[in-house]
Amino acid sequence: MVPNGVDHTHRKVPAPDAPSFVALDAETGAIVWTNRDRENPILHGQWSSAAYGEFGGVRQVICPSGSGWLFGLDAATGETLWKFDCNPKGAKWILGGRGTRNNLIAKPLIYDGRVYMATGQDPEHGEGNADLWCIDPKKRGDVSPQIVNRSQFVPNPDSAVVWHFGQEEVDPVQKVGFEDVFHRSISTPVAKDGLLIAADTAGLVHCFDAKTGKRHWTHDLFSSCLASPIIINDRVYVGDEDGEVAVLALSKQLKVVAEVSLGEAITTTPTVADGVLYQATRSRLFAIKSGAIFENVVAAKTMKTDQKSLRQQIDQLTAALAFTKKQNDELAAQQTQLQQMQKALQLKLKLLESVEGNAVDR
């Protein structure tokens, strides 16, 4: 993916003929093939990443274009196998986010022979409605939901849409709630056990049946979400700009397992390595391991007695407590010790505040 885009005027693409998709030989760096959207201009920028999958024996690279179109390319030759307009026909691109035509910023998800794509815009453009698509990548040609026929938008008989949640489902006559709409998103969906999880910048986390698109539940983070969710075992983890990490059960029923405050904005997706969850915030990196929280918190601390240090230690112990909450029975003893330490630190802080208050009074 080539990060092409508009210049400082936000109206002109300095290199409109530059390739959007480039394949290189991994050993030599030589260009194998290039491709681009030759019919539709880049709207704003080209920030997404490509995905790779094999469908019906055909190896494909799934490439989101800066035009809002999604392309399925032959991995060996770069030939366009199919293309899909991820915006409703008639949607308008207006500078500053006031329009209804969106970009492709999230990465496409490939799961169980299907491609899932969320649309959105630069978060600085504000909130707005968007679309979440489930696409059959075995179709060929223009597989958009609609095509233009004699200046009219008509259903496409070759459409690759399996299911859709977004702008077109909103009935302007019927009263639709905030949670009943898919808002702009830069988050990549995730899926496991037949369930698809998708988040949007408005702070909503949706759970769908991956095959049918039936929405099982929606959870409101009450804060903007720029990160992508991640699934670990039977849990969904997703952070928000308030610095909260929501831990949700991967199930057809909404169940909030825990909500953990890391103290500052989260805009990145967590990752896992060797049984450790790594989550970056604006200025810190947290490493969290189930079963080792007590040792990590206590061993890494030199207990200072100034108020700032005590507050930081209390916050960290509170976060550790939230992660140990509702764990298995072998963590119960560690949780009790953490609670005792938290209470002792809170008592010490109160004593310090009382002593300093009396000194001021004198």
Written overview of the protein:
15% of the residues lie in helices and 31% in strands. It has 362 residues and is α+β, with helices and mostly antiparallel strands. It has a five-stranded mixed beta sheet, with no helix packed on it. The protein is elongated, with a radius of gyration of 24 Å.
Give the topology.
Elements: E1 21-24, E2 31-35, E3 51-55, E4 58-64, E5 69-74, E6 80-85, E7 109-111, E8 114-118, E9 131-135, E10 141-142, E11 146-149, E12 152-155, E13 161-166, E14 190-192, E15 195-199, E16 204-209, E17 215-220, E18 230-232, E19 235-239, E20 244-249, E21 256-261, E22 271-273, E23 276-280, E24 285-288, H1 293-299, H2 307-324, H3 332-361
Parallel strand pairs: 6-10
Antiparallel strand pairs: 1-2, 3-4, 4-5, 5-6, 7-8, 8-9, 9-13, 11-12, 14-15, 15-16, 16-17, 18-19, 19-20, 20-21, 22-23, 23-24
Notable characteristics:
362 residues; alpha+beta; Lipocalin; elongated
Q: What are the low-pLDDT stretches, counting only 5+ consecutive residues below 50? A: 293-300
Given the structure, what is the number of helices?
3
Order of helices and strands: EEEEEEEEEEEEEEEEEEEEEEEEHHH
CATH architecture of the largest domain: Beta Barrel
Characterize the largest beta sheet: strand count, sense, and whether it forms a barrel.
5 strands, mixed
Class of secondary structure makeup = alpha+beta
Q: How are strands sequenced across the largest beta sheet?
A: 3-4-5-6-10
- How is the quaternary structure best described? single chain
Distance from N terminus to C terminus (CA atoms, Å) equals: 68 Å
Number of strands: 24
